[in-house]
Each structure stands twice: as structure tokens, then as C-alpha cells.
Amino acid sequence: MTENHGVREVEYEQPTNELEEEIAAVMAEVLSVDRVGQRDSFYDLGGTSLSAIRICARIERRLGLRVDPLWLLDHDELADFAEQIRLGAE
């Protein structure tokens, strides 16, 4: 299934692990979308710097991990952002 997020069409790839699933749920909630896939771009889903701050704050509260909003702005696809969080937690 292909979805149009306004900027480009992306084939939905579901999150592959628990961390990606948690992040996807938070992103979907903050950005008011049905779901977020591995290769969905934060920007294509309507993300802004303010929503990046909200997403990171919620992830920190839910998972107890330190998350810098710049990570999301620099790594806008879910899988890449999750990897950055993993690296930051090491």
C-alpha cells in the first residue's frame, strides 16, 4: 500500500522492534496521523521544530531515555531516528 504524505509517496514499512513501535506511536499521536512506518519522514508527516520537542519529551517520559530534538530534525525517518536514540543510550 502506498500513502501520499504530501511531499512524496512512501511504501509503508511497519516498525521492526519495540523501540521503533514506541517511537512510531508517539510520533503518530503528536502529529495526528494514523500510523508511522520505518521510512516515513517526520517532515512529510507535517513535523515542525515544536512537534519535535513534544515527541522527544514524550519519548523521554515513556521510555526513560534522553532524546535530543536535533536527532529527530537530523534523522527524520523513523528507523534512522530510532537508531540515533539507540546510539545515544549507549
Question: How would you characterize this protein structure?
Answer:
This is Phosphopantetheine-binding protein. By secondary structure, this protein is mainly alpha-helical. The protein has a single domain, classed as ACP-like (Non-ribosomal Peptide Synthetase Peptidyl Carrier Protein, Chain A, Orthogonal Bundle). Helix content is 52%, strand content 7%. It has 4 helices and 2 strands; from the N terminus they run ββαααα. The chain has helices spanning 18-31, 49-63, 69-74, 78-89; strands at residues 2-4, 9-11. It has a two-stranded antiparallel ribbon with strand order 1-2.
What would a concise description of this structure say?
The chain has 90 residues and is mainly alpha-helical. The chain is built from four helices and two strands; from the N terminus they run ββαααα.
Characteristic terms for this protein:
90 residues, Non-ribosomal Peptide Synthetase Peptidyl Carrier Protein, Chain A, two-stranded antiparallel sheet, 4 helices, 2 strands, 52% helix, disordered N terminus
Strand-helix topology:
Blueprint: E1 2-4, E2 9-11, H1 18-31, H2 49-63, H3 69-74, H4 78-89
Helix pairs in contact: 1-2
